[in-house]
């Protein structure tokens, strides 16, 4: 998937170093939706 042009995401250095690496380390995004529940279907609470 590294070379797939449909899989590109442009990030600034601080976002890449903090947010994106945390998602990759956990395996899911912990960001909540408007209802307070995680929006990532891979999240354990979803």
What are the low-pLDDT stretches, counting only 5+ consecutive residues below 50?
none
Share in β-strands: under 5%
Q: Which sheet architecture does the biggest sheet show?
A: none
Radius of gyration: 12 Å
The coarse overall form would be globular
The SSE string, one letter per element, is H
Query: Strand pairing plus helix content: what structural class?
Result: mainly alpha
Q: List how many beta strands DSSP finds.
A: 0
Give the assembly state of these chains. Answer: single chain
Mean pLDDT: 86
Our measurement of the CA-to-CA distance between the termini, rounded to an integer number of angstroms, reads 25 Å
Which percent bin holds the helix content?
25-40%
The helix tally amounts to 1
Structural features, described:
- The model has no long low-confidence stretch (mean pLDDT 86).
- With 46 residues, this protein is mainly alpha-helical.
- The protein contains 1 helix and no strands.
- It has a domain at 11-36.
List keywords for this structure.
30% helix; 46 residues; 1 helix; mainly alpha
Question: Could you write a compact summary of the structure shown?
Answer:
This protein is mainly alpha-helical.
Describe the protein's topology.
Layout: H1 13-26
């Amino acid at each position: 998937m590294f070379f797939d042009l449909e899989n590109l995401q442009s990030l600034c250095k601080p976002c890449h170093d903090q947010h994106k690496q945390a998602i990759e380390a956990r395996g899911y995004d912990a960001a909540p939706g408007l209802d307070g529940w995680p929006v990532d279907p891979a999240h354990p609470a979803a």
